[in-house]
Amino acid sequence: MNLFEKYNVPAPRYTSYPTVPYWQKECPTEDAWKKQAVSAFQQNGAISLYIHLPFCENLCTYCGCNKRITKQHSVEEPYIESVIKEWKMYVELLPGRPVLSELHLGGGTPTFFSPENLKYLLESILSDVDLPEQYEFGFEAHPNSTTKAHLEVLRDLGFSRLSIGVQDFAPEILEIINRRQTFEDVENVTLWARELGYESINYDLIFGLPLQTKDHIRTTIDKVKALLPERIAFYSYAHVPWIKPSQRAYSEADLPVGPEKRALYELGRTLLQEAGYFEIGMDHFALPKDSLYKAMEAGTLHRNFMGYTPLYTTLSLALGASSISDSWGAFVQNEKKIEDYQEVVNEGRFPIIKGHILSDEDRILRRHILNIMCRYETSWDQTEYQCEALYQGLERLDTLEMDGLIKRYPYKLEVTEKGKPFIRNICMALDAHYWRKQPEGALFSQAV
Q: What is the pLDDT of residue 343?
């Protein structure tokens, strides 16, 4: 059995630890979350902010995001008013004026919203914060709906980074996943952004899409090289039709699986590295001039629900339906249904429906998993980074060490070059919640 066959098992992506399926059954009370948020804020007054803008005009059938499909743009203003109300509740709660280190607009499709409405939303938020010397504002851009006016408004408000959902450039693949865009759309947004002074452009690419072959990967990377964005997110397609029924729009026979899918990843990774990109954590690549690469080199790279970031704040607040906030000691998620979210916010209550207060063990294991995800290593030479669950997890790594995926020392673990594609498996070995109660049914996508 080769390594791919051995380790291609369902595994979490570890955007959080514990992962969402293992959060406590009872949602933390609103008061408990408020205390967590205030405590985290008091450490240095800096925050990260994520705003979920869930609307899309068309359904991309591969997508696993929380979204609402509509062509009725009358939904924009009521939703924005609710987001602002939620933000004002946090402004009143926090004991001081926040310093906004990081701001990200995600979706859905943030550029579903008009430039004027985005300006109104963001000016309402920025009026309540101070900006540090270094900050990062970014947004997700659909190349078919992002206009130069969007880019101009957001650039004027301090945005310097955008992420373009490319997925693949092949028309036949875009058609089967119902992604309506062209190479020219991507090129236009890229060139406009550079003209306006955006410092970092990311392309989201996916391997394992229906009909995708090695030739598609080669063609896509060739076109990437022609435009040379600063960052690449090269994701594995997660086929979870039991969670996202839209993925049943194509046959599973159309999907590259097993060694065939693995070959797409290996080819893409090689071609990106040959083009001058360096691997960053899991699924990400960056040019040496990009802040993500510099953060990796400096050992300050961080990972949260927004993905990899060069900045870290103890408190990450998330506004909008289904979004998840993080105080390091707790997670809370907002109401998923837009109408429920708006109703609760308009009543003046925080719209949380689930969450998790981390135990001391959770915090220790979270730190080690985050270190592995961001730095390919972790250490526990100090007692504050040790617990029984860690040592139990280290024992599960015996096979991975024999296969050359990691190296272990008395108080340190390192991921080898050979082990980088299996980083989810390495982290899963340390996941105490998973091993105490392994899932009975389909819960996670395949690891590689």
A: 98
